[in-house]
Every structure is written in structure tokens, then in C-alpha cells.
Write a structure and sequence with these properties.
The protein is built from 3 helices and 6 strands; from the N terminus they run H-H-H-E-E-E-E-E-E. By secondary structure, the chain is of the alpha+beta class. It holds the Pfam family YolD.
Length: about 110
């Protein structure tokens, strides 16, 4: 027979977590998963611009990697419109910010 205070007995029987501790652990684990925004150089922006223009003019599907702080976000479709004044582009009826683009490539048909 084991005594309650032997080894880790007292703590084994009373495991609990305060809501503040749980929130802190969740916030910390989310901060570890956060992504850092990639800055494209001039040559990469030229390639992105070329791919977007190709999709807009020739109705070819493209794959665009966009920044998201937690997950990998890829938009695949045909560019419908580009609004340079507001800094956004439309793919399949949905607007996306141009500044969030991390890369773009033509999709194989």
C-alpha cells in the first residue's frame, strides 16, 4: 500500500490547471506557430506581376501564396480583376491584398 505523500502522490491526486495558466500556454504555443512575413525583392515582384498579368489576359489559372500569420495560404484560380488603386486583386470573385503575396506561379493545365 502506498502512502499519499510518497513520491509524487500529493500532486498526482490533485492535477488541475487554472484558466489563466491554460490561456497563457495556448498563447505561447500559438506564438511559436506564427509565421514571419516574407519580403519580396524587385525581381520576385516582376515575376509575380508577369504571372498575374498572364492569368488576367489569357485566362490561365495561377497559384498564389499569400501571407497568413498562422497557416500556409494558397489561392488557386484565374485572376478576374486587378485594382492597383486599392492594392488588391480578384480571383474567382474574391478580393485579396496584393501586399500579402509571397509568390505566384502558373498552374499546369
Amino acid at each position: 500500500m502506498r502512502k499519499k505523500l510518497e513520491g509524487n502522490g500529493l500532486w498526482e491526486s490533485s492535477r488541475m490547471m487554472l484558466p489563466e495558466h491554460k490561456a497563457a500556454i495556448n498563447a505561447y504555443s500559438e506564438s511559436l506557430r506564427r509565421r514571419v512575413r516574407i519580403e519580396l525583392d524587385e525581381q520576385e515582384w516582376e515575376q509575380v506581376s508577369r504571372v498575374v498579368s498572364e492569368s488576367l489576359l489569357r485566362r490561365q489559372p495561377i497559384s498564389v501564396r499569400l501571407f497568413h500569420p498562422v497557416e500556409l495560404l494558397t489561392v488557386i484560380g484565374i485572376v478576374d480583376r486587378v485594382d492597383e488603386l486599392k492594392g488588391r486583386f480578384m480571383v474567382d470573385g474574391e478580393w485579396f491584398p496584393i501586399g500579402d503575396i509571397e509568390g505566384a506561379a502558373l498552374e499546369a493545365e
